[in-house]
């Protein structure tokens, strides 16, 4: 059996790489002998990262520009050959269809369209949907109505699809990153200085006042709580997190207590950072998920419906604050509350992680039946 996976992989985004890792774990559990090809923005890197562990190949995505797209569908294209010869085409997870990037729906619909043209069964797995423009709704209807399997990662996405007239069965599963195993913590010396991980996301509508309030809170963490702050970049490149991190850090008084981390795409190393942390402040969705998987107290700073849905479906209402509602007093209150009940937080997240894994394995049984 030949399977092609397409998603926002090879794009210098740790969250999307965790999704791919979870997808590969899933497929190896469901179909151990499948020949897997990943469509990536950086095929060489993707192959280097995953082939040794999962025995897969990698090719480029179909380009989204008109001229380059037409060129890519000629017979000599490795991508076209992979899709032409596959038995199943998987449009992998993440928030691929939403309004954050207006052209995203077009790009991902174009990828799936090539499989539909060849009458390949399409599996949509691990997606968050919405909010959508009218154009986004058009593409979602066209693609999702023809899917052989639909798996979304929150109840709100399932409801949105039903409201759009999608009548096929919709399976709700946790994010595929919950499928990635967390290694046993490495032995480490007992640290007297607590470490706080901070993972922000660059947005055009973040107010200067919010940055000022967050910086004030960082100073409080360092000066009053004697913390070391680790600013962790989940997105690199031109749309990366570094610019916003630097705006916050420039207003911190004791910068010797600040560490910048540009983590490698390595789940073991990534989880090791979180295992050593005392608390996590996360705008990035998968920084939130890493905190959940390592059972650390955290506060999710929401900028998107997908963050709200993750926290709502996980019944963690006190673990979230809107990026438009940031203030020193509110951040301080959340930190004191959650930091003061670490054992309860750990116990709750352990139960949640177990439940999420069971839900993912239940969905895998449906996939296994489909792929027979």
Structure commentary:
By secondary structure, the chain is an alpha/beta fold. The protein folds into two domains: 2-180 and 355-370, Rossmann fold, CATH 3.40.50.2000; 195-340, Glycogen Phosphorylase B (Rossmann fold). The protein is 46% helix and 17% strand. It contains 14 helices and 14 strands. The strands form two sheets. Strands 1, 2, 3, 4, 5, 6, 7 and 8 form an eight-stranded parallel β-sheet that branches. A six-stranded parallel β-sheet has the order 11-10-9-12-13-14, with helices on both faces. Helix 8 links the parallel strand 9 and strand 10 (228-232). The radius of gyration is 21 Å and the shape is globular. The model has no long low-confidence stretch (mean pLDDT 93).
Q: What general form does the structure show?
A: globular
Order of helices and strands: EHEHEHHEEHEHEHEEHEHEHEHEHEHH
CATH class of the largest domain: Alpha Beta
Q: What integer value in Å does the Rg equal?
A: 21 Å
Largest sheet: 8 strands, parallel
Say which CATH homologous superfamily of the largest domain is assigned: Glycogen Phosphorylase B
The oligomeric state is single chain
Please report the total strand number as a whole number. 14
Q: With helices defined by DSSP (H or I, 4 residues minimum), what is the helix count?
A: 14
Q: Structural class, judged by helices and strands?
A: alpha/beta
CA distance, first residue to last residue: 9 Å
């Amino acid at each position: 059996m030949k399977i092609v996976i397409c998603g926002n992989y090879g794009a210098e985004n740790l969250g999307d790489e965790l999704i791919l890792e979870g997808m590969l774990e899933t497929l190896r559990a469901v179909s151990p002998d499948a020949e897997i090809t990943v469509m990536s923005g950086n095929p060489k890197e993707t192959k280097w990262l995953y082939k040794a562990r999962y025995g897969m190949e990698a090719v480029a995505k179909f380009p989204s520009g008109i001229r380059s797209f037409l060129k890519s569908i000629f017979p000599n294209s490795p991508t076209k050959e992979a899709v032409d010869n596959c038995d199943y085409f998987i449009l992998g997870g993440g928030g691929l269809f939403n309004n954050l990037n207006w052209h995203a729906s077009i790009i991902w619909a174009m990828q799936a369209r090539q499989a539909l043209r060849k009458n390949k069964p399409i599996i949509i797995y691990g997606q968050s949907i919405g909010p959508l423009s009218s154009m986004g709704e058009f593409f979602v209807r066209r693609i999702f109505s023809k899917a052989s399997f639909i798996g979304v990662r929150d109840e709100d996405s399932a409801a949105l699809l039903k409201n759009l007239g999608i009548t096929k069965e919709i399976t709700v599963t946790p994010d595929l990153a919950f499928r990635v195993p967390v290694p046993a913590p490495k032995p480490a010396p007992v640290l007297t200085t607590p470490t706080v991980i901070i993972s922000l996301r660059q947005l055009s509508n973040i107010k200067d006042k919010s940055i000022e309030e967050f910086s004030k809170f960082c100073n409080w963490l360092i000066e009053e709580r004697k913390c070391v702050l680790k600013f962790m970049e989940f997105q690199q490149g031109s749309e990366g997190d570094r610019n916003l991190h630097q705006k916050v850090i420039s207003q911190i008084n004791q910068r010797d207590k600040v560490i910048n981390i540009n983590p490698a795409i390595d789940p073991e190393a990534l989880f090791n950072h979180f295992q050593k942390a005392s608390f996590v402040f996360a705008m990035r969705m998968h920084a939130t998920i890493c905190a959940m998987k390592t059972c650390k107290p955290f506060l999710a700073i929401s900028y998107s419906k997908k963050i709200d849905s993750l926290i709502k479906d996980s019944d963690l209402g006190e673990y979230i604050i809107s990026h438009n509602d940031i203030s020193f007093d509110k951040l301080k209150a959340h930190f004191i509350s959650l930091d003061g009940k670490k054992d309860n937080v750990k116990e709750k997240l352990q139960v949640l992680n177990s439940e999420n894994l069971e839900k993912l394995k239940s969905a895998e049984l449906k996939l296994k039946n489909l792929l027979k």
